[in-house]
Automatic annotation (TrEMBL):
Transmembrane segments: none annotated. Belongs to the phosphofructokinase type A (PFKA) family. PPi-dependent PFK group II subfamily. Clade 'Long' sub-subfamily. The record marks D173 as: Important for catalytic activity and substrate specificity. Its main location: cytoplasm. Pathway: Carbohydrate degradation; glycolysis; D-glyceraldehyde 3-phosphate and glycerone phosphate from D-glucose: step 3/4. Non-allosteric. Residues 70-335 form the Phosphofructokinase domain. The active site is at D202 (proton acceptor). It catalyses: beta-D-fructose 6-phosphate + diphosphate = beta-D-fructose 1,6-bisphosphate + phosphate + H(+). It comes from Duncaniella freteri. This is Pyrophosphate--fructose 6-phosphate 1-phosphotransferase. NCBIfam families: PFKA_PPi, PRK07085.1. The lineage of its organism: Bacteria, Pseudomonadati, Bacteroidota, Bacteroidia, Bacteroidales. One of its GO terms (cellular component) is cytosol.
Length: 551
């Protein structure tokens, strides 16, 4: 591939490893674990991989391995900055174990394993992709690994290539699939280890051991740069209200981090909306109040941040979506045969009275979007719902009412933005470059330790990388039972914004000042070179959560 000057310079960057991984390592086991919820149900479903201990790696004088190991790797789900560094760290890790170890990449996600589409990843290929964004080294996909037929088909190619370990780089759904695959291969004695790596820009794959998912740091810095640019434009022209929707289907971590970075006038946090049992109208009133308050100071402009998944957190709409999920899962073929002009009436007639009333109250376009095709995991494709336009239009109508009552005399013009794909394939920040490389290298150490059903883990992330703690946790430790696509299934529990957590409390303490004043900050682009305090800072979310500063 042709490289830019920046990419050439970035190729020379050497990610920093935790000091514990720079020689021989040995595994230290902690206490047995249990799942995040529904312990008895999860234990029954995962008898071979449940209750395993946490693992921490320590230095040892022994190095290398007696024989080479063949490893497969899969990039699963949406892209996230740093995926290539996970693979390069994994490659270097298994080569450190034995120089003749081989790495095979399955193409276009889990489907490549099932369809036997792969390529060997050699040093010359790996070197082309170090410290670059994207997943284009092998591609990604959203095929779910959930059937015995798929598992057995995948095992055929694993045995043909003599692969004894498979690394799945993905989010909560992908790592749930990794846990199921690990359990199946362990149960039948397949001799294949399965290791997961925590990936998602949404930031909702974490717990006290997985401190953050990779890609979150880079993506939020990309979004914060563009939000800052819009705020500067907004403060220059002084005539538009910018409604900005940000990625984050099931949690508001991205919106919260960008708010902490940029200090917009309004940022809606979905988890707070749900906790306060707010209606859509109340959310609209909250934004309209900010517009009115600023107009009274002659400020007819502002910036509003909106999480992608907001609509799912409004309690009445959330209940409606859950009922729609079950309805459309149970009657998918019947719904497909209904003429498009009759689908609204069909849906209303098949809902309970409360949900039918909620459905009828929504604008036709939004109601229609709630019945669109689901993703492979049965979720509403909330990125297709233009929440930013819905809210800006409803705010405009509310302002018309207030103007008629003599309570508003300002001007209201709007602009709309959705920042999503812009951040998913950016070149990783120094933090993500180091973090991802370390996660891949740690996965190699987990393979060398002979474990399966584990997720690669690095901790102490607000310190310098040399001081990070490397290890792994059983994937079952993060799981509970949830209703998905009409069925109760074991899944990794999503980590939502904690309203009593330090990041949200920091935001809540300042937002009233931001609402009325013009307190914008302009983070600027990601810095790859320069002083550590500029280049190597982790996200503010991570800093506040860990309650200690880095460097």
């Amino acid at each position: 591939m042709k490289k830019s000057a920046l990419q050439i310079a970035r190729a020379a960057y050497h990610p920093q490893l935790p000091i514990v991984l720079t020689g021989g390592v040995k595994m230290k086991e902690g206490e047995p674990t249990q799942s995040a919820g529904d312990q008895e149900e999860i234990k029954k479903l995962f008898p071979n991989t449940y209750g395993l201990p946490e693992i921490i790696f320590e230095k040892t004088s022994a190095t290398g391995s007696a024989k080479p190991v063949n490893v497969g790797v899969i990039l699963s789900g949406g892209q996230a900055p740093g995926g290539h560094n996970v693979i390069s760290g994994l490659f270097d890790g298994i080569k450190h174990l034995h120089k003749d170890s081989k790495l095979y990449g399955f193409l276009m996600g889990p489907g490549g394993l099932v369809d036997h589409q792969y390529k060997e990843l050699t040093a010359d290929i790996i070197d082309e992709y170090r410290n670059t964004g994207g997943f284009d080294i092998i591609g990604s996909g959203r095929t779910k690994l959930e059937t015995k037929e798929q598992f057995d088909k995948g095992l055929e190619i694993l045995r043909e290539l003599d692969i004894t370990a498979l690394v799945i780089i993905g989010g909560d759904d992908s790592n749930t699939n990794a846990a199921i695959l690990a359990e199946y291969y362990k149960a039948i004695g397949a001799g294949v280890q399965v290791i997961g790596v925590p990936k998602t820009i949404d930031g909702d794959l974490k717990n006290n051991v997985i401190e953050t998912s990779f890609g979150f740091d880079t993506a939020t810095k990309v979004y914060s740069e563009v939000i800052g640019n819009i705020q500067r434009d907004c403060n220059s022209s002084k005539k538009y209200w910018h409604f900005i929707k940000l990625m984050g289907r099931s949690a508001s971590h991205i919106a919260l981090e960008c708010a902490l970075q940029c200090q917009p006038n309004v940022c809606i946090i979905s988890e707070e909306v749900e906790a306060k049992d707010m209606t859509l109208e109340e959310v609209v009133d909250y934004i309209a109040d900010a517009v009115v308050a600023r107009s009274e100071q002659g400020l007819n402009y502002g910036v509003v941040l909106i999480p992608e998944g907001l609509i799912e957190f409004i309690p009445a709409v959330k209940k409606l979506i859950a009922e729609l999920n079950d309805l459309l899962a149970a009657k998918a073929s019947e719904f497909a045969e209904i003429a498009s002009e009759d689908q609204r009436d069909w849906v209303i007639s098949n809902l309970t009275p409360d949900c039918a009333a909620t459905y009828q109250s929504l604008p036709a376009g939004v109601a229609r979007q709630l019945t669109l095709d689901r993703d492979p995991h049965g979720n509403v494709q909330v990125s297709l719902i233009e929440t930013e336009k819905l809210l800006s239009e409803m705010v405009g109508k509310r302002l018309e009412v207030l103007a008629a009552e003599g309570k508003y005399e300002g001007k209201y013009s709007t602009m709309h933005h959705f920042f999503g794909y812009e951040g998913r394939c950016a070149d990783p920040s120094n933090f993500d470059a180091n973090y991802c490389y370390g996660l891949g290298y740690t996965a190699a150490c987990l393979i060398a330790s002979g474990v399966t059903g584990y997720m690669s883990s690095l901790r102490n992330l607000t310190f310098a990388p040399v001081n990070w703690v490397a290890g792994g946790i059983p994937i079952t430790m993060m799981m509970n039972m949830e209703r998905r696509n009409g069925h109760v299934k074991p899944v990794i529990r999503k980590a939502l914004v904690e309203l009593d957590g330090a990041p949200f409390l920091k935001f809540a303490k300042q937002r009233d000042e931001w609402k009325v004043g013009t307190c914008y900050t302009y983070p600027g682009p990601i810095q790859y070179f320069g002083p550590a305090e500029i280049c190597d800072q982790p996200s503010l979310t991570l800093v506040y959560e860990q309650k200690r500063r880095k460097y």
